[in-house]
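In full, the data.
>
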Amino acid sequence: MSSQGRLDRGDGVALAWSKLEGRSPTVVFLPGYGSDMTGDKATALAVFCEKRGQAMLRFDYSGHGASSGRFEDGTIGIWSTDALTAIDQLTEGSLVLVGSSMGGWIALLAALARPERVAGLIGIAAAADFTETLMWPRLSLEQRAALMERGIIHQSSRYGDPTPITRALIEDGRNHLVLTGTVPLDCPVRLLHGQADPDVPWEMALRIANELTSGDVQVILVKHGDHRLSRPQDLALLRQTLLPLLGEDGA
């Protein structure tokens, strides 16, 4: 059985969500920066979970998709709190977190906040700490100065309209960095990354794997895969990777 709704996070901002009832663990999909729960990977997982009777939760961060709020008001701290609000109020029992790009960072933060509930984690081109390690270094001195002075700049994007970058996003990101030492997560972790990713270097997956305390970590590199990893063969790999974390043999 599926259901949809809007979750008031307590300040008048409503988070849009879509949920499938089913067997545990609940698969929770965490979208990327500027993305939402209607993307190819999220919808493909929803179809997969519905067919096998697996519980699943999708949602949009504030300022994303069908949720209210302004995108420019969002930060890593706000969006990770959105994720925990949705998880805490809309799910029960064990979870498998699946995070795409920024969602991989959010998934790590959520798992660190609720370690007793997380049975597994999949990162798809996981962009941990991207505001500090990728976004800030790629800004020119002129862009950095404009960002500090005006509080916001817009950067061209290969995926559509120019992307707003705010001073609050950069500064708040520094309060939520995870790759500053050992990452104390002991659940199974799978990191999928395309080696043709123009946005997040595939070496990021190796760095995350190296910092995790878990002994059950696998990095799966896709030689010609891009950042989105949404081709049919990529989605098949995602399903194949997810199955063992749900208690299946993956055959």
Notes: The mean pLDDT is 96. The beta strands are 2-8, 14-20, 23-30, 54-59, 95-100, 118-124, 152-157, 160-166, 189-194, 217-222.
